[in-house]
């Protein structure tokens, strides 16, 4: 390349050629020139083609240029050289970067920020990396430009590595140069003193003190200047209005993702086959604009299903951003690396430790899990406040207290760092131990709680933490004893939340290591198994677990545990037909609870006796007892017991021949009771029972719809009940399909040991009568056998298929 052609080259191209000729990477040149690699990248891309004089001198020295090369690069740099240029530049309206995409879901933010700027000289947009602070600031500036006689101006501090160069970057758009006799900041404030303009100062976090000093001078000395700053943490200036930019809400996040996906892959579209997958992807990416754009770009190579599967390794997937972006914005890891690199050692340790929380957590939990001999609760609070200020942790009000959480991408990053530091196991152990202790405290408070729902509601906040603690402690490298303490302490909570099937799996997991569990925890574990089996409609398994619990509690002299286990065993015995044994256990349990003065458990046990009377055919006595228990349960605010009694009263009404009253009560329960909305097992039972009542009333189509809802909500064993109801409903028009469904449901009910109650007896009797009328015995026997051999999926599909008449 000759000297004649050198000056004609654009500055960025020339800089790159000289860098490569020197054998330097962008990072190496940045280190030599005391700049950032982002800054070098911006210069080479042409995003900044007019470096300050100080920056240019550093580059020339770092590259070791010859005089000829130095002359060429100086000539290629467009720099203000005469004072008159200041006036010329200030006649321009703005230098805003052009927005290439539309803004999604930020209308409210734009309105709020416009109002804030009317009343404050400084508004700082804070938020996580990639959330869209800069894009929001530019959009706001464009909309507000008519308000400012001297325009809106954009200052990008991302390329500035040396805090001393912040004033130079701010002066650049205005052509203000540094005189020999006074500081550049003073010269700049003098130039802008009488101006009416909006100044966007973008990416302040890595040169925070210098940026704050410059902005402080501007808002003090320039009454017509408004400043809109963006930073991952606040500037901590007097009069600063901080506005935290949140992630996008689901709908605009979905719109952004879809638009970028369509740009990437022309054939991409959202349909019934992929909508749920895309919604899950958007949700897992926290509504962070950058993450959504990076993920959408991957649809050039992956289907939505493949993309979702790979989000477990999100930092490998979320790469490949536009080459026009800064390097720290081209991958999700680099974006978070930028924030992590700005933290001091204690903040980094805190971020790694709180990554153990899968969702929101309290200050108390953070202090217990993250503190050590060098970090007490007050220090934890200080560090949390700092991480919140730096947009790495979110702080949210929950009732009367603050709770904290991390976005999933930041949490995944911190988990990786924790793994690298060998801290993961100790964090998991402290986390599990804290929540096991919390569970034990909650269990001791249950008997004193005025409302079971309010008691459970306070614990709902920690559900994800309880699950994470169980996953770790009951796993291969966990702490089984801690896990069993947690699981057994929260029996009431699991039931009130309708989590019996899930907790039953945890209990079976613990049961495999029974020899490793201390003796004092074995009885509570068997009782937990029994109570979860009770909800999962498995009386045979319930009887075994409750019997083991009774033996162990009795041997240990634990009367309270024994009273509860006796009640569970009595319930199991009534459902397997051992009515005398059931009566004996329930009466003994009732006497013990009365002696303890436990009104709640007295009411529940009386309710169990009402269920026994019902199975014994003593329906009037059963109903009378259940009405009494229902009233008592409402008085003591035992909401689950109340709805169970109401459901049982409906069953008794049906058994007494009043299907209309039974259906009315069941409809009211489903429409009004919050416990049924929460507890899927109870809801499935009420839906199945209502299907039988409606069938008895001749309302077949509504009965079938209700049975299908029950089938949707039921677990594996109980699903056989609504399938039998469906078989009875369709039997007049499709007897062969009904016979197959009866064969399947009969097999499942036989395996589970489920006690057939009045509703099941009723639909089975009508079904069998219809089948015997429609089919000859040999064909009926063959169809029943075929149904009994069907796998679950086939049986459910057959039950859901509509009849020809319905179609």
Overview of the molecule:
By secondary structure, the chain is mainly α. Helix content is about 65%, strand content about 5%. The protein has 43 helices and seven strands. The strands form two sheets. A five-stranded parallel sheet has the order 2-3-4-1-5, sandwiched between helices. Helix 32 (about 600-615) packs antiparallel against helix 33. It starts with 10 loop residues before the first helix and ends in a 7-residue tail after the last helix. About 50% of the residues are buried.
Provide a short characterization of the protein structure.
The protein has 43 helices and seven strands.
User: What is the tally of helical segments?
Assistant: 43
Number of strands: 7
User: What integer value in Å does the Rg equal?
Assistant: 35 Å
Strand content: under 5%
Biggest β-sheet, characterized?
Answer: 5 strands, parallel
Structural class: mainly alpha
- Fraction of helical residues: 55-70%
Termini gap: 80 Å
Order of neighbouring strands in the sheet with most strands: 2-3-4-1-5
Low-confidence stretches: 1-9, 79-91, 321-330
Mean pLDDT: 87
Q: What best-fitting shape do the alpha-carbon axes yield?
A: elongated
Can you give keywords for this protein?
807 residues; mainly alpha; two-stranded antiparallel ribbon; 43 helices; 64% helix; 4% strand; disordered N terminus
What secondary-structure arrangement, pairings included, does this model have?
Elements: H1 11-21, H2 26-33, H3 37-45, H4 53-63, H5 67-76, H6 84-90, H7 107-119, E1 122-126, H8 133-144, E2 152-156, H9 166-171, H10 184-192, E3 197-202, H11 208-221, E4 225-230, E5 241-244, H12 250-264, H13 275-284, H14 289-297, H15 304-309, H16 314-317, H17 332-341, H18 345-354, H19 363-370, H20 377-389, E6 394-398, E7 401-405, H21 408-420, H22 424-446, H23 452-460, H24 463-473, H25 480-489, H26 491-496, H27 500-511, H28 519-535, H29 539-556, H30 559-575, H31 579-596, H32 599-615, H33 619-635, H34 639-655, H35 659-672, H36 674-678, H37 680-696, H38 700-713, H39 720-730, H40 735-752, H41 758-774, H42 777-788, H43 792-800
Parallel strand pairs: 1-4, 1-5, 2-3, 3-4
Antiparallel strand pairs: 6-7
């Amino acid at each position: 390349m000759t000297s004649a052609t050198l000056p004609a080259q654009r500055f960025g191209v020339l800089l790159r050629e000289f860098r490569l000729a020197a054998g330097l990477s962008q990072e190496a040149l940045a280190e030599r020139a005391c700049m950032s690699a982002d800054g070098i990248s911006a210069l080479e891309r042409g995003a900044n083609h007019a470096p300050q004089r100080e920056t240019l001198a550093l580059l020339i020295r770092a590259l070791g240029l010859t005089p000829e090369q130095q002359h060429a690069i100086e000539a290629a740099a467009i720099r203000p050289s005469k004072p008159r240029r200041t006036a010329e530049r200030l006649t321009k309206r703005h230098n805003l970067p052009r927005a290439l995409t539309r803004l999604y879901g930020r209308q409210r933010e734009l309105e709020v920020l416009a109002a804030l700027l009317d009343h404050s000289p400084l508004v700082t947009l804070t938020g996580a990396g990639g959330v869209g602070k800069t894009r929001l600031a530019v959009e706001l500036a464009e909309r507000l430009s008519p308000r400012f006689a001297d325009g809106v101006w954009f200052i990008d501090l991302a390329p500035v590595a040396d805090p001393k160069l912040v004033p130079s970057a701010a002066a650049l758009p205005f052509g203000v140069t540094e005189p020999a006799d006074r500081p550049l900041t003073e010269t700049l404030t003098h130039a802008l003193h009488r101006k009416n303009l909006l100044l966007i100062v973008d990416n302040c976090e890595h040169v925070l003190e210098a940026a704050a000093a410059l902005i402080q001078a501007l808002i003090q000395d320039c009454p017509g200047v408004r400043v809109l700053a963006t930073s991952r943490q606040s500037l901590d200036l007097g009069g600063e209005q901080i506005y935290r930019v949140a992630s996008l809400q689901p709908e605009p996040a979905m719109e952004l993702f879809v638009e970028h996906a369509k740009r990437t892959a022309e054939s991409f579209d959202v349909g019934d086959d992929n909508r749920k997958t895309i919604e899950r992807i958007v949700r897992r990416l926290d509504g962070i604009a950058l993450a959504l754009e990076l993920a959408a770009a991957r649809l050039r190579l992956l289907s939505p299903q493949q993309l979702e599967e790979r989000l477990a390794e999100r930092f490998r997937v979320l790469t490949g951003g536009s080459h026009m972006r800064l390097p720290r914005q081209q991958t999700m890891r680099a974006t978070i690396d930028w924030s992590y690199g700005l933290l001091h050692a204690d903040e980094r340790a805190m971020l790694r430790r709180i990554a153990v929380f899968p969702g929101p957590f309290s200050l108390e939990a953070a202090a217990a899990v993250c503190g050590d001999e060098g970090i007490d609760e007050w220090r934890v609070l200080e560090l949390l406040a700092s991480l919140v200020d730096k947009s790495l942790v979110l702080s949210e009000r929950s009732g009367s207290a603050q709770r904290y959480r991390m976005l999933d991408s930041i949490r995944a990053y911190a988990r990786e760092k924790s793994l690298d530091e060998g801290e993961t196991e100790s964090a998991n152990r402290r986390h599990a131990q804290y929540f096991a202790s919390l569970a034990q405290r909650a269990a001791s408070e249950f008997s004193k709680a005025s409302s079971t729902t309010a008691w459970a509601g306070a614990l709902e906040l920690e559900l994800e933490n309880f699950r994470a603690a169980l996953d770790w402690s009951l796993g291969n490298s966990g702490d089984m004893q801690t896990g069993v303490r947690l699981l057994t302490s929260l029996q009431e909570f699991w039931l009130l939340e309708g989590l019996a099937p899930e907790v039953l799996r945890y209990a079976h997991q613990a049961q495999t290591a029974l020899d490793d569990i201390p003796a004092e925890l074995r009885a509570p574990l068997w009782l937990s198994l029994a109570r979860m089996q009770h909800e999962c409609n498995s009386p045979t398994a319930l009887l075994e677990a409750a019997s083991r619990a009774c033996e162990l509690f009795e041997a240990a002299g634990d009367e309270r545990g024994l009273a509860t286990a006796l009640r569970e065993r009595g319930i199991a015995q009534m459902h397997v037909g051992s009515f005398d044994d059931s009566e004996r256990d329930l009466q003994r349990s009732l006497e013990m609870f009365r002696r303890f003065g436990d009104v709640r458990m007295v009411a529940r046990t009386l309710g169990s006796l009402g269920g026994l009377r019902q199975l014994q055919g003593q329906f009037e006595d059963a109903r009378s007892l259940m009405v009494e228990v229902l009233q008592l349960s409402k008085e003591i605010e035992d909401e689950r017991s109340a709805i169970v009694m109401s459901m049982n009263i409906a069953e008794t009404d049906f058994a007494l021949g009043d299907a209309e009253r039974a259906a009315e009560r069941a409809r009211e329960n489903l429409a009004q009771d919050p416990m049924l909305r929460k507890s899927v097992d109870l809801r499935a039972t009420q839906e199945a029972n209502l299907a039988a009542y409606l069938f008895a009333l001749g309302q077949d189509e509504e009965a079938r719809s209700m049975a299908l809802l029950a089938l949707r909500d039921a677990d594996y064993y109980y699903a056989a009940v609504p399938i039998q109801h469906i078989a009875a409903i369709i039997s007049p028009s499709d007897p062969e399909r009904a016979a197959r469904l009866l064969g399947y449901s009969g097999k499942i009910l036989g395996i589970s040991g489920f006690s057939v109650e009045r509703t099941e007896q009723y639909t089975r009797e009508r079904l069998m009568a219809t089948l015997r009328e429609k089919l000859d015995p040999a064909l009926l026997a063959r169809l029943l056998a075929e149904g009994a051999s069907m796998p679950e999926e086939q049986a459910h599909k057959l039950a859901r298929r509509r009849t020809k008449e319905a179609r």
